Amino acid sequence: HVMHRILERRLHTNTLLLNLPLSLMYFLFYVMGYYLHEDISNVFFLESTIRMRTDAMFLEVQTIDQLWDQLQGPFLDTFFVQEDHTGQPLSKGYGNGDRWGQWGRVETFNQMQGAMLFTQSRRSTDAFGIAPYSCGSSATCDLCRGNAGFQRRGALIEHAHPCGNWSAGPANASRRLGGAEDSLRRLDLYREELDGTIREQTKIKEDRFEFYLFPGADKSELLEKLTYFRNRGWLDHLTDYMEVKFYLLNCELGRCRLESTRVIFRFSQGGGIYYERKLIPVFLEWFANIKSLGVDVAFGCVWTVTSFFRLLLAWRAFLRSELFSHMMDPLNMFEFFVVVVGLGVIGVIFFFNYIATRVTESLSPVRDLGWALSDAHVALVDEMFLKVDVQVEYLDMIRVV
Questions:
Q1: How many CB atoms lie within 10 A of CB 262?
Q2: Rounded-to-integer distance, Cα 100 and Cα 223, Å
Q3: Cβ pair 152, 121 in contact under 8 A
Q4: 108 burial class (0-12, 13-18, 19+ CB within 10 angstroms)?
C-alpha cells in the first residue's frame, strides 16, 4: 500500500514534468505558425498605402460633385495606371506567355483582377433611369441605349432607351440630370456609432444598380464612362449606399495574395455622405515556405502527443473511478480546452487552404483573358465576384472569431 502511494506520487511528479515542455512547445509552435501565415509586414505595407491614398481623396469631399471629381481624377489615376513616370504607355505583356506586363500596376506590386465594380442602392427605384438622355458619342450611346447601370439587377437589357441623336455632337453630353439636392450632400468618415442610423446596402440584389470599369480599357474610355454616369445622375439625393469593389493581386511582395478592397459611401437622409474602406487579404499560397510547413507539422505532432497524454490521464482516472473529479479539476479543464482549441486551429489551417484553392479557381477564367476583358464578359466577371466574395466573407468571419 505504501509502495502504491509512492508510485502514484512519482507518476504525478513525472506527469507535471512532462506537461511543462509540452505546453511550452505547444504555445511556441502556435505563435510561430500564426506569424508565418499572416505575413504581417507586407500586408501592412500594402493596406496602409491604399488607406492613405483613399483617405487623401475622400476625407475632404463634401458634395456628390466633389465625389465625382475625385473618382474621375486621383482615383482613376491611382488604380488605373497606364503610363510610366515619363508619360510613356506601359506594356500589357512581354510575350512568352506573359499577358500582364507593367500595365495597371497599383503601387508598383499589384494588378487589378477582372474589373472594378460600382454598386449603389436607393430609397426608391421606381423612376430611376427612365428620363431621356442625349448622349454625345458612340460609346456613351451604347451605354445609354442598353440603359447600363440604371436597370435593376437581373432585368432584361433594354435596347431602345431614348438617347437622342448622338451623331449631332456632344452638345448635351455634359448636361446633369438630378435635383439641386445633389450638391447638399456632405461627406465624412464613417464611424461605428452610426450603425443603425444610416441605411446599409439593400439585401435585395435585384434592387441594386451597378456597372464595371475594365482595367484593360484606355483611361480615356474609362473617364468617358464615368462622365456618362455622372452626367446622367447615377448618384443623386435618393442614393442610400454606394460601394466600389475590386481585387488586387500581389505575387511579388511576400506571399502571393489577393487583396479584397471595398470603398464604401453611405448617404444619410440629412445630407451627409460617410466614407469607409475595408481591405481583406486572401493568401493564395497558405504555406509561405518550408519553414512554415515545418512549424505546422510540428504543431500537429505536439497537439497529437498532448491529446494522447490528456486522454491517457483521463483513462487512468476512469480506472480508479475518479473520472468525474479528474474532469472537474480546473487545471485539467483548462488543458482539455487547449486541446480543443488546437483542433480548431488545425481545422482552420485546412479551411484556409481550401479557401485559397477556391479563390484561385474563381480567378482562373478571368485571368485567362488577361487585359482583353470588356463589357462582353460581364457574366464571367459577375461569377468571379460572386464566388470570391463568398470566400472572403468566410475568411473575414473566421479571423474575427
A1: 17
A2: 22
A3: no
A4: exposed
pLDDT score of 215? 93
C-alpha cell at 231: 452626367
| Distance set, CA 273 to CA 184, 239, 264 (Å) | 10, 10, 10
pLDDT average per 10 residues of sequence, the chain (401 residues): 63 64 82 80 87 91 89 94 86 71 86 94 82 83 84 63 60 38 47 54 73 93 94 89 94 86 86 86 83 87 86 83 84 86 87 91 90 89 93 84 64
Helices (H), 39-168: 40-58, 64-70, 76-79, 138-145
**Spatial separation of the C-alpha atoms in residues 99 and 365, rounded to whole Å:** 14
Q: Is residue 122 a contact partner of residue 240, using CB atoms and an 8 Å limit?
A: yes
Domain spans in the chain, listed from the N-terminal domain onward? 18-39+289-400, 41-158+186-283
Residue 360: predicted pLDDT? 93
Q: pTM value?
A: 0.79
| CB-count exposure of residue 330 (10 Å: 0-12, 13-18, 19+) | exposed
The three cell numbers locating residue 94: 512581354
Output the CA–CA distances (angstroms, integers) from residue 388 to 259, 375, 384, 399, in the order listed: 11, 20, 6, 17
Q: Nine-digit cell at 70?
A: 475625385
